[in-house]
Specification:
alpha+beta; eight-stranded antiparallel sheet; 5 helices
Length: about 190
């Protein structure tokens, strides 16, 4: 068993490292923060790109801690025979750590592969990957190697699975302006 798989299953059992699945399974530890004001999904201007980056840096630092070890978990998936993977040339060589299979709403088989490595959290190093995720061109999550808290950016925002309800409360207070007004937090 890989080191990541051992680490991951000790925190999340059989759940895959996918933000939306963690959100559904762990609602008391989950919070969603929007990447742009008024829940705008994609940046149209350079100022909006800078705002997304600033929020990613602030939340990543709060969840992972600048310079602290974290697991970078890069994701690919295959559905109906098509593999979706954007090659991100600046990533270190990652080893496949997990595979998860499910059936989607259309009845198609989906296979998710997760590649992981521990690295220090440094926003500057991950800024291009975070930008690609914000533009829906790539998939990855970061996991705090000490607490297991998950920072899961997506196109439109950031899902965070906190290590405790106390951490969730602190993040919601600190970054309250970035929270959804939707009653379910979406």
């Amino acid at each position: 068993m890989s080191k990541f798989k051992t680490f991951w299953t000790s925190h999340y059992r059989a759940l895959p490292p996918l933000g939306y699945m963690l959100r559904l399974a762990l609602p008391d530890l989950w919070t969603r923060f929007h990447a742009l004001p008024e829940a705008k999904r994609y940046a149209d201007t350079e100022a909006e790109h800078r705002e997304i980056a600033a929020r990613a840096r602030a939340l990543g630092n709060a969840v992972l801690g600048e310079g602290n070890p974290c697991w970078l978990v890069y994701t690919t998936y295959e559905t109906s025979g098509d593999t979706v993977q954007i090659e991100y040339g600046k990533l270190p060589r990652l080893a496949r750590a997990l595979r998860y299979e499910e059936e989607d709403a259309d009845g198609d088989r989906v296979v998710w592969d997760f590649y992981a490595q521990t690295l220090p959290w440094a926003f500057k190093s991950f800024a291009p990957l975070l930008a690609a995720i914000a533009d829906d061109e790539d998939r990855a999550v970061w996991v705090n190697a000490a607490s297991g808290a998950v920072f899961a950016p997506y196109d439109g925002g950031f899902d965070v699975i906190c290590a405790s309800e106390g951490q969730r409360k602190q993040l919601r207070e600190r970054f309250g302006k970035w929270l959804s007004r939707h009653r379910e937090g979406l």
